[in-house]
Structures are given as C-alpha cells and as structure tokens.
Design a protein that fits this description.
This protein has about 325 residues and is an alpha/beta fold. It is about 45% helix and about 15% strand. The protein has a domain of about 160 residues: TIM Barrel (Alpha-Beta Barrel), CATH 3.20.20.
C-alpha cells in the first residue's frame, strides 16, 4: 500500500482566525493518526494572511504534544532564513520531547517575497550556501566529534532524519549526492517532477541515513461523496491559485458555483499548469487518478495537501482518501 502523509499549511479561511486554523491543525492531525497517515508536516511561510504555520517548530511541538504515534515534521524549514545551529537546537529539542517522531524537511527558498526577506534580516544570497548549511546542520544533529567546540544542546546525537525538498533539479541533485530522501513540491510546481525523480534515482549515493532512493511527491487531493461535490470544494483552491497569478495572497475563500466567472483565460491557463498534480472527485474517481499517478511516477509516498474552506469537509476528504 502506498503510504499517505499530510502537508497542512494551516489555512486561514475567510471569517476565521489563525487561532482557529491552529486548533483545526491539531484536530486534523489527531484524526489522521487514527486513519493511518504516516506523517503530518507543516511548512514555513511568512507574511501570508492565509497560512498560520510561520512559527513552524512551535506548530510541530503543538501537534506532536497532542498526538501519539504519527510522525510530525517540517515540509519544510526554509534553511536560508536561519542558522543551522538554531534549527539543530529547535529540532533536537523536539526530538528529545517526542523521540522517533520528528522529521526535518529542508528547502532553500525563502518562503516569502523580497520585502519580507528584508524584514527577516535574510541575506538575499543566503540560498547559495544551502548545501553547506545542510551539511553543517547534519553534523550538529550527529554524534559529537573529537575537538568539536560548537554543539547543539539539545540536538547533538539526536540524528533527526533530514529530507531535501524542492521544485527543481537542484534539490534532486543534492538529495542524491547526500543520500537523503527527496520530496518534490508537485502540488504547486509540477513541471520538473519526472525529470527530478529520474535524476534523483539515477545519481543516488547510499548514506548512513538511507541505503536506497526514497522519493515523495506532493499532490492536492479533494475527496467527496460525488465528483460534483469535490469539484465544487476544489474551487477554493482554484481561486487561491488564480490569486497567486494575480500577485494577491489572502485568506482561503469559500467555494463558488462558477469558477470560469472568477478567472480570466490567461489566469486559468497558468493556474491549471500549477495544479496539474491535483485531483478532485469521488473515491472511485480518485482511485483511478492515483493509480495512474503512481504508475507514472513510481513514488514511494504521497504527501497530500487539501485546501478546503470548511474544516468538516476537509476532515471528510482525508477520511475518504484513507479508505481508498
């Protein structure tokens, strides 16, 4: 059976608040644990009114404290925004509190725009040092070496498993070189998915963490009792991507009856290209889509994002998907 995991951006819906979004995140993770999902990840995004997971390690701690067995982690931490030592301390602390349950996915994008990067005090060139920062972080989470003068406390010796995240070939090459699992962000940037997977598998070098390639793909999935109901719920995500094309990021909007009246032909074309790895339908319809996707990609795991305006409908979507 193909393992399923959850990427939760802790969406803030119109008429709601970040506090409610975070309570919903806890509720979703608790249900996901019972339904058999393998991981529950949240992602670092800044200055985005519709996403409540900016303080990613804090949210991970909150979710892990309210669950028992599901792995909880970052999908991901945008490493250029931080020093490796600080992230080693944060995730070493999480691993110490919730042993054998913490994942650390790493991205090299800032997770925001240039103006917000300035507010974060991030050097625009920081991403150029991403490979070196990953190695430094890996060493800080590994065993203490003779003569080592800087250590993460907690952190040293915790060996929190690292993942490389990406939406281009850069991350695939780095994950292969370092022998780390690789997660491709096809839920919003699917264009290079197949090429990245092929490159990763062909160049993979075994490591202490991983002996053979392990690839995960992000997909948007919305399940409902009927195709019509799922397509209606899907319009919230379609509106969000149309707004991204327009350069506007806001709260998650309620579904609408006619998405064609919302976007222009040009916006539709661009949004649909980004949503190429997105599936909405009844369980029977989704089963066929997912079988085709797995046959095409051969991924080892699916990371499922489900942006639905109504929390109860989002829970139902994930429950139906688990049953499939």
């Amino acid at each position: 059976m193909l393992p399923l995991s959850i990427l939760d951006l802790a969406p803030v819906s119109e008429g709601s608040t970040p506090a409610i979004a975070l309570q919903n995140a806890r509720d979703l993770a608790q249900h996901a644990e019972r339904w058999g999902y393998r991981r529950y990840w949240v992602a670092e995004h800044h200055n985005m009114a519709g996403i409540a997971s900016a303080a990613t390690s804090v949210v991970i701690g909150f979710v892990a404290a309210n669950t028992s067995t599901i792995r909880v982690g970052a999908g991901g931490i945008m490493l250029p925004n931080h020093s490796p030592l600080v992230i080693a301390e944060q995730f070493g602390t999480l691993e110490s509190l919730y042993p054998k349950r913490i994942d650390l996915g790493l991205g090299r994008a800032p997770g925001t725009d240039r103006q917000t990067m300035h507010a974060l005090r991030v050097d625009p060139m920081a991403s150029e040092h991403f490979p070196q920062d990953v190695l430094e972080l890996q060493a800080l989470l590994g065993p203490l070496q003779p003569g080592q003068t800087i250590q993460a406390v907690p952190g040293t010796g915790t060996n929190v498993p690292l993942w490389i995240l990406g939406s281009s070939l850069f991350g695939a090459r780095l994950a292969a070189l370092l022998g780390l699992p690789y997660a491709f962000a096809s839920h919003f940037a699917p264009d290079s998915l197949m090429q990245a997977l092929e490159l990763y598998r062909a160049n993979f070098k075994p490591s202490a963490q991983l002996q053979k390639p392990y690839a995960m793909a992000g997909v948007n999935i919305i399940a409902a009792e009927t195709d019509e109901r799922a397509q209606h719920l899907f319009t919230s995500l379609q509106q969000r991507f149309a707004d991204m094309v327009r350069g506007a990021r806001g709260l998650l909007k309620p579904p609408i009856d006619d998405i064609e009246a919302y976007w222009s032909p040009a916006e539709k074309t661009q949004a649909q290209r980004m949503l190429k790895c997105s599936f909405a339908g009844s369980p029977a319809t989704l089963r066929g889509h997912l079988q085709d996707f797995f046959a095409k990609t051969g991924v080892d795991e699916l990371m499922v994002a489900t942006a639905v305006y109504n929390h109860a409908a989002r829970l139902q979507s994930y429950e139906l998907l688990a049953e499939i």
